[in-house]
Amino acid sequence: MAGVSTATVSRALSGHPSVSKTTQERIRALAREHGVRPNQLARNLRLRSTGAIALAMPLGHARTQHLTDPFFLSLLGFLADLLVDRGYDILLSRVLPENDEWLDRLVDSGRVDGVLLVGQSDQYDTIERVAARYAPLVVWGVNRPGQRHLTIGSDNIRGGGIAATHLLGLGRQRLLFLGDPAPPEFAERLAGFRDAAGATAVEVLSCEMDPDAVHAAVRARLAAGTAPDAIFAASDVAAMSALRALTEAGLDVPGDVAVIGYDDVTLAAHTSPPLTTIRQDLVTGTRLMVETLLRRIAGETATSAIVPPELIVRASA
């Protein structure tokens, strides 16, 4: 119909500069008129590209965690917007690892050009092993000396230190860390909190990061003895559950107990009282994740990066 070869039609539909603009427009008009569309799968095979990126959240340590968690929703939303703006489709996966092959199956599936992992959970060793053979893999998480896999993440040790310094400056002495200390990011927040607390003892109330579980743990702790005068929660969601339990126990925040969260999710400014928290700069962090992944996909070198946290002071502490 166009009076040109099949190859010319293919090049015209892909916008190849070897075909004049006039011919491209004429062929595209014919394609629209007759419902002709390029075979995307065939194009991907020819280009050795899927045009898709996997966004995966491994939940080895917290199987009850959901994608609806405000922090994960914000981070995934920023990543999705950045990838779509760059022309990529997204394969979203919430992974409950049954063995150490889950990441191998993902990177070897042939369905994606690269993988972004949100968190390391208890899967650090698996991520390290796969990163040794698969370059386009970038993780939101902690960075350890000699680490193979690339990470972008908050300086969690510094964030924990900022929280302790602020609470000590308010004259608080009975400090409690609230949350599961097992995941690498939470472990670093606790380590930084303890280091900055110095001689001041830090009690650890370990619990699953499900809001109901946190709420129950705080209620039980308050019923068991003297309340702490300050709580540093491993996440804003945990801090919000603590606020509810403290209010139900008749304690004033911050008069009786000061509370600091971590993340600065949107809801943190709207709790009662508004939540003091350690902000993770997700705008910068997600941009670095995508840029780093695209460099690895292109075969270029890239490095990990740490994003500084920031104390956001509100009424809870």
From TrEMBL:
Gene3D superfamilies: 3.40.50.2300, lambda repressor-like DNA-binding domains. Pfam families: LacI (PF00356), Peripla_BP_3 (PF13377). It comes from the Bacteria. Residues 1-47 form the HTH lacI-type domain. SMART domains: HTH_LACI. PROSITE patterns: HTH_LACI_2. Residues 1-22 have a biased composition (Polar residues). InterPro entries: HTH_LacI, LacI/GalR-like_sensor, Lambda_DNA-bd_dom_sf, Peripla_BP_I. The keyword DNA repair does not apply. CDD domains: HTH_LacI. Keywords: DNA-binding, Transcription, Transcription regulation. The keyword Transcription regulation applies. Signal peptide: none annotated. This is DNA-binding LacI/PurR family transcriptional regulator. It comes from Sphingomonas endophytica.
